[in-house]
């Protein structure tokens, strides 16, 4: 459920007309709803009421400071994968004690900052990494609390580019080596083993892969305990999908049942890293129709948003519902069109043959479910400025990231002196 609805013949974000934001801030623009963010975070965390659970929002899904602060106020922790994300989480007021650090390529400088501020846990993904972490922590006189991310070799049945739990993927330590790797890490200075971590992929719409992975984690926890490790935490990652195309994925409550059935009685702290589920449907991307063009074979609706602003369709064949900001008249007949951006690539196509109400230049459209992996993945390809972001709260809104001036983009480059003369 979200708070983007038609009212008085036009699309509203909570109590603000989307067309008003589009006119005042310009397009393309991401618009987020506070009430939806809050609702999604609360629904997820309440599903674990009574369990010892820490919900660490996956910052990679949406790292805007205002979004993070909205979640921080509800008690969210953070799952970060870079120094930049760690700094963002801290700047938004998320306490270090609720931050976990994931990722296969953590550098010593990133470990240093994380140790300095005292994060909750490093999710270590390889043997070389745990050795570097041991060196860095020992040098600093600190102890890193760690979980190894284990690769359970489970098929997440999602898009290949966002599936992470198969043996062939780069993530985690191999399942069959886990016991040995834990045993060796336990001897390292500066390392304190706390838990087991798993994350099998994103946009999962089926609970079975979760159940399989979590059951394997339970067995591993029992084995590691029998080998003398004091395992007190289990991090089950993120990955629960959201409805993009009308198919309704399992609810957070059903997901919680699967997790609790499997892991609930181990007496561990349970850590979750949801990203998309919290922010996905809390955001839309609003764009203006620039031209409607009749090609030889197809009709094209050409927008001022492009693949650099929302890359999911080009990168993962991602489906986003596209609504007109003016509410369509129920009697109007839909017309199939390719919805495209202005970037000079055929891949800059948001939808092919999509049935839409008739639109004309100057109309606004909204891509639904664009709050996760939208703005964070934007680029300046074709020297297009990064897309701005707006946060709505009830009947008011704020620009939470302004559209950069084009001059600022040009100023990032420098001309070497041999070209000056
Ligand atoms: N934890 C780890 C270690 C992750 O790698 C991810 C996502 C998450 C948590 C959060 O997963 P979520 O709950 O959001 O599914 N750009 C792609 C998605 C990439 C996901 C990467 N990892 C997309 O737009 O579909």
TrEMBL record:
Amino acids binding substrate: 276, 312, 316, 345, 373
InterPro entries noted in UniProt: Ala_racemase/Decarboxylase_C, DAP_deCOOHase_LysA, De-COase2_C, De-COase2_CS, De-COase2_N, De-COase2_pyr-phos_BS, Orn/DAP/Arg_de-COase, PLP-binding_barrel
Sites of N6-(pyridoxal phosphate)lysine modification: 60
Reaction(s) catalysed (UniProt annotation): meso-2,6-diaminopimelate + H(+) = L-lysine + CO2
Pathway listed: Amino-acid biosynthesis; L-lysine biosynthesis via DAP pathway; L-lysine from DL-2,6-diaminopimelate: step 1/1
All copies of domain Orn/DAP/Arg decarboxylase 2 C-terminal, residue ranges: 30-371
UniProt keyword annotations, A-Z: Amino-acid biosynthesis, Decarboxylase, Lyase, Lysine biosynthesis, Pyridoxal phosphate
Binding-site residues for pyridoxal 5'-phosphate, renumbered to this chain: 239, 273-276, 373
SUPFAM superfamilies referenced in this protein's UniProt entry, alphabetically: Alanine racemase C-terminal domain-like, PLP-binding barrel
EC number(s) recorded for this UniProt protein: 4.1.1.20
Family affiliation: Belongs to the Orn/Lys/Arg decarboxylase class-II family. LysA subfamily.
Function field: Specifically catalyzes the decarboxylation of meso-diaminopimelate (meso-DAP) to L-lysine.
Assembly with partners or alone: Homodimer.
Protein name per its UniProtKB record: Diaminopimelate decarboxylase
Organism, scientific name: Sneathiella chinensis
